[in-house]
Specification:
heterotrimer; A mainly beta; B mainly beta; C mainly alpha; B: mainly beta; 8-stranded antiparallel barrel; C: mainly alpha; Serine Threonine Protein Phosphatase 5, Tetratricopeptide repeat; 3 domains; 3 strands; about 0% strand; elongated
Chain lengths: ~260, ~250, ~525
């Protein structure tokens, strides 16, 4: 933490020459935020995909509800889904533990080409824990926006953005597809989330959000016995990172001062 | 492959986010503090690979760039990966394999890693902005995109088997695939620290088209040749320290 | 001189219109003319009405033809030509059966040509309150407004208020009439203030404030009522903004600087009046001794956004503020800027403004031409000053009038039915005479503005010299008191402005100007005065 402060202080010192003015005066900009979020509710819808897993590929749909305690802090309730909740598909007769068919229900859960290569061409077997996939996630997180910014595209258009960090936790149901191509429940886990992102305001009530969020859980998946290997349990800390792009609608909060004639 | 698609998708998203919302006639920023036009820049860039399936790199490169105006520049980059090899994940799945013997060239894509490279391309800076980190600390930045081509020396590991049956073991032997043409694309943020010094944080995907004669076991113990044709991606996160002249 | 020209023009129009009939008109010609008029064949109708007017022996027919000739031309968009015949009807007086309608026609032409000078003068000359009582109240209101405006320009404030007060509240011109009344009260306030009559000053400003607020109240302060007001009153949106600005000025005049600041701050950023509001709010902050905010307002005014703005006084104000806080080097720098950018232009400006060899037509090219050639004497007028003159709202009226005349001249030449006719010849003459007059009037306007600009800068040169002298005296005082001449060795730099809460954004200014930050600058300055000196 001390190092962080030293780094920030160093940057501040380095920045000083660029700001050099008369020693007898300083110029400041103090403006009311165009896009205040204090006390606002924000409903967001995202489409997302996982970016760092070798063998699994998630496509997700996410809904979130944020309450902005002030300009810097918000509480967020998030539901992310890669599979139709509660529906399991057709149970495979005689399977124990239960196995299910139904790829359509698992609209966002896929295995990558790399997995096919490893399994079919090289006849290699990744750990089952590496194959576990998130079905549905429900969680709560705290969002912290210490940074605000603005930008211009080709010096012709002006945009405002808030950058944020988020951390929280929740529960996620998981599954994996076994060698027979059937889906097997791998349990419900506590999942820790950490992420960062930004929202670009297009109006006081509307924003575009880009969110990168890591979902971490300790996957524990049974491996069936084979001719040469006994049944065992694969355990692994899984980090699945999602990039999510969405739109936000903001309600409530401070009523903007509408400047309309006669002023 | 899907991970690569994901990265491409992100690049597209960046373009979408950078799209103008209604052009305006007047300049948004007058008397810009940091204008790259007419500047010559040297860069020292440590980097490491991320998102790669089976390989890892820790590298450093030196570069030179010239900006014709604030938006467009040319750059060259010369790099060496002083740490390169396979990821733990590959070793893990090889070690738990049941019937790999006697395959020497693994039938997997994205096995190649690189050590030297040289490349050149365009830098495009469409977006200029500033962020406020704390009360008194504002930092200006450029968002930029890069694309170009070059050549790189690629290597990979083959397996050398000893023993037979379940007791067979293998050793990895590094094989040079030679210098191959490659192209790259990416994007990042340039933070202006002081007038002449800036930091570039960038994600860059370096790609080459590989035709690789591997081996596999179509059935039982028979080993057959299999040609793998694919793009090899090495995606680096780069942190460049830049100094501008003039 | 100008008035003589105006009278000459109307005399010519009257002569044309009153040309006597020299031949018998064929019987029923008036009916054919009316039929063509009703059928919408206006060119033919005009030609026939002209024939009737010139040749018919029946006075009633001639009178009718005279008015409808004007009406036909008006409907054809030939406003200047129509003016000739409406004027003939109007100056004929109540004996003319179309007298009042002729007056209304004049008003319609004035509106179409955006003429608030020539036609109002004519109406004022022949104003007949008894006869006008029978006129359409809306048309009469407009006449009263125009006459009020004319009298206001002649500084006959009492008479002007009487005419403006007679404007019907249902008239679309009502808001403008109220506004002009308020402006007159403001002017009177300034006049009484200069005379040191405090009670009358306050009374006039209060009256002005009441009227400005009355105009703002026409909006009902709700969107629905404001929308209705927009549909009812001419230029009401512009008036609302001007009322806001003038409320600020009135409160400033009364010495209530806090309220003045509130109203100045309501002027929308980047609007037409924003530069004036920034400058004037700078003065208001100065009067409240909020020097940081005052310098902040001037910082926006001196930003690249307003690089071509003519505002010599803003540099004098800046120098004055620095002088007040004993930052003498900064004050001298502001004066140096004033000298380099304004005082240095005086010789050239004087040469152009007082060049006896230049005709009014040559002066007119400054505002009537979009591009000035290098050989044009007006190209020597500094760009900043040219832009300041062009920013005057009357310039657009001149340009509109000129475009309208050029369009009309072309339309007369292009009307095939009129080829070779006496009507076409007469109308071309009318337009040409008016164009020449317009150029002379515009030239006079430019010349007057150049002289005023010269005098304005010269006046501020005097202020600048006074500040320079005061600085020398103060610096001598510092040396005598053994105090450092360097401001940084005296006094403390004030802390950065307080950020009210997290709904405000703070940015340090680092020499680059972001569009959204304009208008939100604040300075913190070192209070470098020795103790006991302020």
């Amino acid at each position: 933490m001390k190092k962080l402060y030293i780094s920030i202080a160093s940057i501040a010192l380095l920045s000083a020459p660029a700001a050099a003015q008369s020693p007898n005066e300083r110029v400041h900009v103090l403006q009311k935020r165009d896009y205040s979020v204090k006390n606002k509710f924000e409903v967001s819808a995202f489409g997302g995909l996982s970016i760092d897993d070798i063998f699994t590929q998630h496509y997700s749909a996410t809904l979130s509800l944020d309450y902005h305690l002030d300009e810097a802090f918000a509480l967020e309730l998030m539901w992310m889904t890669c599979k139709v909740p509660f529906a399991l598909g057709d149970k495979v007769e005689g399977s124990d533990p239960a196995e299910y068919k139904g790829d359509n229900l698992r609209f966002g859960n896929h295995y990558t080409d790399a997995y096919d290569e490893v399994k079919n061409d090289a006849k290699l077997s990744p750990s089952n824990a590496d194959l576990a996939m998130i079905n549905n996630f429900l969680g709560l997180s705290v969002q912290f926006s210490p940074i605000y910014g603005k930008w211009t595209l080709f010096n012709r258009t002006l945009g405002h953005a808030d950058f944020y960090l988020s951390a929280g936790g929740g529960v996620a149901s998981t599954e994996f597809k076994n060698a027979r191509g059937n889906w097997v429940d791998t349990g419900v886990y506590f999942v820790g989330t950490f992420g960062l992102g930004f929202r670009i305001f297009l109006a006081r009530w509307f924003a575009i959000r880009l969110d990168v969020r890591d979902f971490t859980f300790a996957a524990r998946v049974e491996r069936e016995a084979s001719a040469s290997v006994e049944a065992q349990v694969d355990t692994k800390i899984r980090n699945t990172m999602f990039v999510m792009l969405g739109v936000s609608f903001l309600f409530g909060g401070e009523a903007p001062v509408e400047i309309w004639s006669p002023y | 492959m899907r991970t690569r698609r994901s990265l491409s998708t992100i690049s597209v998203l960046c373009f979408v986010l950078a799209a103008p919302w209604g052009a305006r006639a007047d300049e948004v920023v007058a008397q810009r503090l940091y204008d790259l036009g007419g500047r010559l820049e040297v860069m020292l860039t440590p980097s490491m690979s991320t998102f790669d399936k089976y390989t890892r790199h820790v590298a450093a490169s030196v570069g030179l760039a010239y900006y014709f105006n604030d938006y467009i520049g040319l750059e060259i980059d010369l790099g060496y990966a002083f740490l390169h090899g396979d990821r733990k994940l590959l070793n893990e799945i090889l070690n738990t394999a049941e019937s790999l013997n006697p395959i020497e060239r693994l039938p997997l894509s994205d096995l190649k890693y690189m050590d030297f490279w040289t490349s050149g391309g365009l830098v495009f800076n469409p977006l200029y902005g500033k962020i406020n980190l704390s009360a008194e600390l504002a930092i200006n930045f450029h968002f930029y995109l890069v694309a170009g081509a070059g050549t790189a020396q690629y290597k990979y590991h083959e397996l050398r088997w000893s023993g037979s049956g379940p007791a067979a073991t293998f050793e990895k032997k590094e094989v040079t695939a030679g210098f191959k043409p490659m192209f790259y694309y990416g994007g990042g943020l340039r933070f202006h620290i002081v007038e002449d010094w800036s930091l570039r944080i960038e994600v860059r995907d370096q790609v080459y088209y590989d035709e690789y004669k591997a081996e596999h076991k179509p059935s039982g113990t028979t080993v057959a040749e299999k040609t793998i044709e694919d793009f090899v991606h090495i995606t680096m996160v780069r942190l460049g320290v830049c100094y501008s002249f003039f | 001189m100008r008035r003589k020209r105006i009278l000459a023009l109307f005399a010519m129009l009257s002569t044309l219109a009153a040309a006597s009939a020299s031949a018998q008109a064929p019987a029923g010609l008036i009916n054919k003319a009316v039929e063509a008029y009703n059928a919408g064949d206006l060119a033919r109708a005009a030609l026939l009405f002209y024939e009737v007017r010139m040749t018919d022996t029946v006075a009633g027919n001639r009178a009718q033809a005279e008015y409808y000739l004007g009406q036909s031309l008006f409907k054809m968009g030939m406003y200047q030509s129509a003016l000739a015949y409406f004027n003939a009807v109007f100056v004929a007086g109540p004996a003319h059966p179309y007298y009042l309608k002729g007056g209304e026609g004049l008003i319609n032409v004035a509106k179409a040509l955006r003429d608030d000078t020539l036609i109002p003068s004519q109406i004022n000359k022949y104003y007949n309150s008894q006869e006008f009582a029978g006129m359409d109240p809306m048309a009469l209101s407009r006449i009263n407004f125009y006459v009020g405006l004319l009298l206001y320009r002649q500084e006959k404030y009492g008479e002007s208020l009487a005419f403006l007060g007679a404007v019907d509240p249902k008239s679309s011109i009502y808001a403008k009439a109220l506004f002009l009344q308020a402006i007159i009260h403001t002017r009177l306030g300034v006049r009484y203030n200069l005379a040191g009559q405090e009670a009358q000053t306050q009374q006039e400003y209060d009256q002005a404030i009441k009227l400005f607020e009355q105009i703002l109240d026409l909006s009902g302060h709700t969107k629905s009522r404001a929308t209705r007001a927009l549909a009812t009153y001419e230029d009401i949106q512009r008036l609302w903004q001007l009322c806001t600005l003038n409320l600020a000025r009135s409160y400033y005049g009364k010495g209530d600087y806090a309220k003045a600041v509130v109203y100045y701050a309501r002027i929308p950023r980047f609007s037409q009046d924003w530069a004036d509001a920034l400058f004037e709010i700078g003065w208001s902050f100065y009067m409240r001794q909020e020097y940081g905010k005052s310098l902040g307002a001037l910082h926006t005014l001196h930003s690249p956004r307003f690089s071509d703005l003519f505002h010599p006084e803003s540099w004098i104000l800046k120098a004055t503020i620095y002088f007040q806080v004993c930052l003498y080097d900064e004050s001298k720098a502001a004066l140096a800027y004033f000298k380099d950018h304004y005082e240095s232009q005086l010789p050239d400006l004087k040469a152009i403004a007082t060049d006896a060899s230049l005709t009014n037509e040559q002066y007119a090219s400054l505002l009537l031409r979009d591009q000035l050639e290098a050989s044009d004497p007006m190209s020597k007028v500094p760009l900043m000053i040219r832009k300041a003159i062009l920013a005057n709202p009357r310039v657009e009226n001149f340009r509109h009038f000129l475009r309208s005349l050029d369009k009309e001249a072309k339309a007369i030449a292009d009307t095939s039915e009129w080829k070779g006719s006496r009507l076409a010849e007469e109308l071309s003459g009318v337009v040409t005479v008016q164009r020449n007059l317009l150029e002379k009037t515009a030239g006079g306007f430019v010349k007057t503005n150049l002289i005023q600009t010269f005098q304005t800068i010269q006046g501020f040169v005097g202020h600048a010299k006074m500040i320079q002298l005061e600085i020398i005296t103060r610096e001598r005082g510092l040396l005598k008191a053994n105090l450092s001449i360097k401001a940084e060795e005296r006094g403390k730099l004030a802390p950065r402005p307080h950020v009210p809460d997290e709904t405000w954004n703070y940015w340090p200014f680092r020499q680059e100007y972001w569009e959204d930050e304009l208008g939100f600058f604040q300075y913190t300055v070192r209070r470098a005065c020795p103790e006991g000196q302020q």
